[in-house]
Design brief:
The complex is a heterodimer of chains A (195) and B (167). By secondary structure, chain A is α/β, with parallel strands linked by helices. Chain A has seven helices and six strands; from the N terminus they run αββαβαβαβαβαα. In chain B, 28% of the residues are buried. The chains are: A alpha/beta (195), B alpha/beta (167).
Chain lengths: 195, 167
């Protein structure tokens, strides 16, 4: 198959085609080599290939479907592959009301995910129980699992979900490789009764 | 010839007499109260009587009346005669300290889960029920949420304090 015409007529960098590329991390460049810290490379790789696990229970899930669709297109952020197996995923996106009976399920899914893992609470219900100030609804999923980013809104617009996703990317990008072995993180998990 | 409310009432009064009380008719639907020991007898009579033949249990639910001393908890049966398309509502009351009422699950299989739900939310103890445990709420719950015993907001929470909401 012939190459697209632009490859033949435009001898320009990809930047000029309107394709975003990730900036090079800080480091030392020389002839034939580039040196940087492992932290930065790993952060860069993880950040741009997050596999989200959607845990959608209600209307925020519908907004997420729009976010995954071609108009908003979460795939632009390297999250093309939405996994439905917790074992393969990095990011748990909890979208919608979590009833108290569903709480243990959320925790089970979280436990099944491999480190490093991140959690995003999308919408008022997942963040705080929202309007469901009642006996049957969990008042925020942070009662059962630690949450990294909260997205406000009822439901949040796809832009807000994307913004939350970019916040997660920032966290992933800047996370120290030692964090998950540190005593502070262990204490955090301990406070949720997770070993 | 449709089954009229007056026919139903006469039949019931013939069988049980004055123990059936609080007769009323709202929107064309007849309603009465029976002593709680008689609930199965009344249900069986309504079911077996060839003329009445209320053979379908539309609904079984509970109500909490905190102001009715000695009979705070109420169980309401909605019955339907599918042939005549006639409906009837029938209530029994029990005190909140001993909320024991005989189970209707022997007569209507559909009452099984309805009674579990009523137990779940009102704590009514259906004597003789084969599997009386919570059906909707979490098993660890140690209270009956639909009883009018609670303030509207969960008082134990710390995240939504008055200061943050300007109350």
């Amino acid at each position: 198959m012939a190459r697209p015409v632009r490859f033949n007529i435009l001898q320009k960098s990809t930047q000029d085609w309107g394709i975003n590329q990730v900036d090079m991390p800080e480091g030392h460049t020389g002839e034939g080599f580039f040196a940087t810290s492992l932290d930065k490379v790993v952060g860069l790789a993880r950040k741009n290939s997050l596999w989200p696990l959607p845990f959608a229970t209600s209307c925020c899930g519908i907004e997420f479907m729009a976010t995954m669709g071609s108009h908003y297109d979460l795939a632009r952020f390297g999250a093309e592959r939405v996994g439905f197996s917790p074992r393969q995923c990095d990011l748990l996106m909890v979208m919608g009301t979590i009833a108290k009976k569903m709480g243990p399920v959320v925790k089970q899914v979280y436990l099944q995910m491999a480190e490093p893992r991140w959690v995003m609470a999308v919408g008022a219900c997942a963040s705080s129980g929202g309007i469901f100030d009642t006996y049957s609804v969990l008042q925020g999923i942070d009662q059962v699992v630690p949450v990294d980013v909260y997205v406000p809104g009822c439901p949040p617009r796809p832009e807000a979900i994307l913004d939350g996703f970019m916040k997660i990317q920032d966290l992933v990008h800047n996370e120290s490789l030692r964090r998950r072995n540190g005593p502070k993180y262990k204490a955090l998990l301990e406070s949720y009764g997770i070993q | 010839m449709p089954l009229g409310n007056d026919v139903v009432k006469t039949k019931l009064l013939e069988q049980f007499g004055e123990v059936l009380t609080e007769w009323e008719e709202q929107y064309g639907m007849i309603s009465f109260t029976a002593p709680r020991e008689l609930n199965l007898k009344v249900l069986n009579f309504l079911y077996d009587s060839s003329e009445l033949s209320f053979k379908f249990l539309t609904d079984l639910t509970g109500v909490h009346y905190p102001d009715r001393k000695g009979e705070e908890l109420c169980v309401v049966y909605h019955l339907h005669n599918l042939v005549e398309n006639a409906r009837i509502r029938f209530k029994v009351y029990a005190p909140v300290e001993t909320p024991d009422i005989y189970t209707a699950s022997g007569l209507f299989s559909g009452a099984n889960w309805m009674e579990r739900e009523t137990y779940d939310f009102y704590g009514i103890n259906f004597v003789g029920h084969p599997n009386l445990k919570r059906v909707l709420n979490v098993d660890e719950m140690d209270y009956f949420p639909m009883r009018k015993e609670f303030p509207l907001e969960d008082q134990t929470r710390v995240d939504k304090d008055d200061e943050m909401f300007g109350r």
